[in-house]
Write a structure and sequence with these properties.
Blueprint: H1 31-51, H2 58-65, H3 69-76, H4 79-107, H5 113-130, H6 132-139, H7 147-165, H8 173-194, H9 199-217
Helix pairs in contact: 1-2, 1-3, 1-4, 1-6, 4-5, 5-8, 5-9, 6-8, 7-8, 8-9
Keywords: DNA-binding, Transcription, Transcription regulation
DNA-binding region: 57-76
Region (Disordered): 1-32
């Protein structure tokens, strides 16, 4: 979980296919289905964060949600589908947050790449704090089989987007390394925020990391 996400319209999210049916996540829910799915996701997040993904039981998730177990399978196919839906929801919210921040900064006339990058980083980290329940789950590295590969795909896409935002020449290895280091710093800080319980400490972390990013973002020489 790292990087500044700025949708470009040219890259699509990669979904991890289900090995049993060859499909990705369920289609966007509407109406009553949305209510059912939200109840299932809320319950799944509770159980996952309390017990870990591996030890979480579907029966307990269904009981806490008040939704029959059969409906859980119908909507998500099992634990794996629930976890991936939570990740997708988290990722999309982070994209919306950082994109809105960058748009607002540009509307104010900000065009300096480093200033924009750090503003996006702050928005992303504040989102990691606001959504820290799922962040705590990510800190544990306890997810479904294949999830690490999926997260690495997103990380690579975020590095490319950060490079464009910082106007770094991706053909130069030194430039790519600099952007990857910056992205890794953000990801590490997001993980710390996921494990943080004090708002004052969380704000201190965000401020500290943004200062570090400002220093590291400057091109050498």
């Amino acid at each position: 979980m790292s990087g500044i996400v700025e949708p470009t319209g040219t890259e699509t999210a990669h979904r991890l296919p289900d090995p049993q049916d060859g499909t990705g996540l369920p289609e966007a829910p509407t109406g009553q289905n949305r209510t059912i799915r939200n109840a299932l996701l809320d319950a799944a997040l509770e159980v996952f964060t309390e017990r870990g993904y591996a030890e979480a039981g579907l029966a307990e998730i269904a009981t806490r949600s008040g939704i029959p177990l059969g409906s859980l399978f119908q909507h998500y196919g099992g634990k794996r589908g629930l976890y991936l839906a939570l990740w997708e929801e988290f990722r999309e919210e982070q994209e919306r947050r950082t994109a809105a921040t960058l748009s607002a900064e540009r509307d104010r006339g900000v065009d300096d790449p480093i200033t924009l990058f750090v503003a996006g980083a702050r928005a992303y980290l504040e989102g990691a704090w606001d959504n820290r329940r799922f962040g705590r789950l990510l800190v544990e590295d306890d997810g479904p089989t294949g999830f690490d590969a999926l997260r690495r795909q997103w990380d690579r896409a975020w590095v490319r987007r950060n490079a464009r935002l910082l106007e770094v020449d991706e053909k130069r290895r030194a430039g790519r390394v600099r952007v990857r280091v910056l992205t890794t710093v953000i990801g590490g800080a997001a993980r710390e925020l996921g494990d943080c319980t004090d708002e004052g400490e969380a704000r201190e972390i965000v401020d500290e990391v943004c200062g570090i990013l400002t220093h590291l973002s400057a091109a050498p020489g």
